[in-house]
Structure to design on (107 residues):
């Protein structure tokens, strides 16, 4: 192997490490998580049933999913944990129905 080829391989490895390490850290340390991994709080979940700009529900979703994966509750227990589902009549948006996709609600 020529010295020139050794230098190309060495600098290619250095460049890959300099670019790859920050990218790997960014994705594996969840630095791109907009929801900050807040723990699930049932009272706050129920209190903020309606979506708005300051709704903390999104911050709790990952914790909630982990909790439900560990416990493996029945559907009725999930509904009890999360409170009533769907939106109220005041919002003029139909309530979600079990087994119905969102695009089928207005049919």
């Amino acid at each position: 192997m020529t010295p020139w080829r050794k230098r190309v391989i060495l600098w290619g490895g250095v460049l890959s490490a300099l670019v790859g390490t920050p990218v790997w850290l960014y994705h594996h340390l969840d630095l791109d998580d907009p929801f900050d991994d807040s723990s699930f709080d049932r009272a706050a979940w129920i209190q903020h049933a309606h979506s708005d700009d300051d709704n903390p529900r999104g911050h709790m979703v990952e914790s909630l999913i982990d909790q439900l994966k560990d416990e493996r509750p029945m559907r009725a227990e999930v509904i009890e944990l999360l409170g009533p589902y769907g939106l109220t009549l005041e919002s003029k948006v139909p309530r979600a129905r079990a087994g119905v996709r969102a695009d089928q609600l207005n049919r």
Summary: Residues 35-98 form one domain. The chain has a mean pLDDT of 75. The chain has two domains: 1-32, 35-98.
